[in-house]
Write a structure and sequence with these properties.
It contains 5 helices and no strands. By secondary structure, it is an all-alpha fold. It has one domain. The longest helix has 17 residues. The model has no long low-confidence stretch (mean pLDDT 84).
């Protein structure tokens, strides 16, 4: 019985660690800027971020746009690893 409870608690902790959060004010602000007939909710926003993270090659335009706006920066460590792999391959 205690082992089952322990596994359930570990599973719950794992879920909590992987949860995404967004401030309510951000949801309100984004919905002010979106068309009135097309507001976004937490679930849809989460699905969008999951899509970008799981399939970055399908979302190059979003990544480029965010970089162009200065919202994200390329990871220098990742770039150095990629450069080494490319130079070894050639």
């Amino acid at each position: 019985m205690l082992i089952e409870e322990l596994f359930e608690m570990e599973e719950e902790i794992s879920k909590l660690k992987s949860e995404k959060t967004v401030q309510e004010t951000e949801i309100i602000e984004v919905n002010k800027r979106l068309p009135l007939n097309s507001p976004i909710g937490r679930k849809e926003l989460s699905e969008i971020t999951d899509e970008i993270f799981s399939h970055p090659s399908r979302n190059i335009d979003v990544i480029k746009l965010m970089r162009d706006r200065g919202l994200i920066k390329p990871d220098e460590k990742d770039n150095k690893i990629k450069e080494r792999k490319i130079s070894k391959a050639t």
